[in-house]
Specification:
There is one protein chain. The protein has 196 residues and is an alpha+beta fold. The protein has one domain: Aminopeptidase, CATH 3.40.630. It has an eight-stranded mixed beta sheet, sandwiched between helices. Helix 1 packs across helix 2.
Amino acid sequence: MTAQPPGTVRIGGEEIALRRMGPADEQAVLAFARRLDPHELLFLRRDIRQPRVVAAWLREIEAGQFETLLAWKSGEVVGCGTVVRDPLSWSAHVAELRTVIASDQRGLGLGAAMVQETFRMAVAGGAEKIFARMTTDQPGAIAVFEGLGFRPEAILREHVRDQAGVGYDIVILSHIVAEVAAKLEAYGISSADVSA
């Protein structure tokens, strides 16, 4: 298991509770996902607006393949960050970070806080390489990951299509934990300082 997440973060002068997703959160997660613009979900492999997808997600959490942190404000989910690992694959040392934030919470720092916390969770869980994917038209999200030392690794051209059939490129950013930590140490900076 990974380190426990903080109980709350202060974003824009308001307290937002952070806690791990569990079975009781299914309907709140569905409500959150259904409030999102479909374009905001294109980087995910599954449509989390579907009850069967969220049910499968909860089974994967129970099996230890996913760890999901939910952000709560006024009794509603306003963000989620997931660490995805497959301990039985050839890439058991690799974790994927997936973060989705409610549109009215963007630009306030919640996305950065969620990415930092899921990054810590992935490292605490033993991930040696961490990656994230997103559509290339999300410069703010890309900047958050680059601020943690992620670098572009690949662009997948026309990799996803929206409901109207419009294609979008996906960028994959990656972070080699030991390599980035060594570079930071050479400059006298600890990785804890960067992700704090």
